[in-house]
Amino acid sequence: MGSLNVEKKWVFPLVMSSLICVFLLATSLNMGLISSLHTMSSFLSIFPSHGMPNQTRISFAEDKFKQFSPPSPRIPRFAYLISGSRGDLEKLWRTLQSLYHPLNHYVLHLDLESPADERLELVSRVEKEPMFAKFGNVFMITKANMVTYRGPTMVSNTLHACAILLKRTRDWDWFINLSASDYPLVTQDDLLSTFFGLNRDLNFIEHTSDLGWKEGQRAMPLIIDPGLYQTTKSDVFWVTPRRALPTAFKLFTGSAWMILSRSFVEYLIWGWDNLPRTLLMYYSNFLSSPEGYFQTVVCNSPEYVQTLVNHDMHYIAWDNPPTQHPHTLSLNDSNDMIQSGAAFARKFKRDDPVLDKIDKELLHRKSGSFTPGGWCSGNPPCSKVGNLNKLKPGPGAQRLQRLVSGLVMSAKHGENQCQ
């Protein structure tokens, strides 16, 4: 009887403990079920929904960057790379002055072949120019790259400048690469006013899939660019065996000079679907890769084909038969340059009289000063800054507008779109 009383004393605590355990177990299972359902719902949401209108679809990172920017009501801004080599200091400085506008951004590069005193002199001039100090929009690559113009180092240098511009500021719409041998045929106000009404995603890249003789002499040979691993410049050299044409992508060729949208520049640098990196490795052994890399990337990217305009915005004259380098322009080419409607021309010798003619008749620029625009104020002109949002386009804008309008119209109808 005593033992029975002891057993009864343990019944109540045992029952209560069991009830509490059951309650906790049920609660944890319920919370686990809710969590599992939530996890399953999130997992299922990555798949396309069929007949489930209320289901939210997850966006991938790639989708975010493929959304093209809407038209902007503000004045566009350009980001320039102006590059040169040994002996190009004065040419580069003159080209910079002719192109300068406070709204734009500029990266300058004298390659590793340039003497140290030339690069230091350029740094000193940039630092001492009050306008550059005021706006902080002129930057020099002080750690110079070696650039062999027939090899991939020119592509690498261009991408380096793009990366710098993306890091320094988001306040630009198009990237333009020029050399010290280039010169503008229109003022920056002409260029800004012409591009003001354009879709900011347009890319001006001369391109064709007709490789012609380049198929056998550039695409199939393998070259090594010593500029990738040496500190002194030397020409590329060929190695064996030759290679077949690729089957994973189609090759295109064109001009090494271009105007690229910010969206496309971001794609080149970030390469979220890996195509830009794959093609960069392929073109590292390609002769004159600057004339193929950008064309092949854009034409093998379905989301960017629709943004192409088949022109490099340059006037370039070639000898007959054409050689490796274009004809050097002179006063005899003045009328053809103007009639072309192009924004830029190349190539020019240092201080050639034709540059003085362009300054006087097209840019209205005095020696040693900036090209006048609506932003200019003070005496002498452009020594002070007036209204940055004021544009004063001239006849050059009309010529450029005619050219660009026709090109954009052709692009809209699908003409020359990577065919």
UniProtKB/TrEMBL annotation:
Q: Where does the chain cross the membrane?
A: 12-34
This chain belongs to which protein, by name? Beta-glucuronosyltransferase GlcAT14B-like
Q: What is its main location?
A: membrane
Membrane-topology descriptor:
Single-pass type II membrane protein
Q: Which GO terms describe its cellular component?
A: membrane
Question: What InterPro entries would the database entry show?
Answer: GLCAT14A/B/C (IPR044610), Glyco_trans_14 (IPR003406)
The highest taxon in the source lineage is: Eukaryota
MF term (GO), any: glucuronosyltransferase activity
Its localization reads: Membrane
Q: Give the record's keywords alphabetically.
A: Glycoprotein, Glycosyltransferase, Membrane, Transferase, Transmembrane, Transmembrane helix
Q: Is Ion transport given among the entry's keywords?
A: no
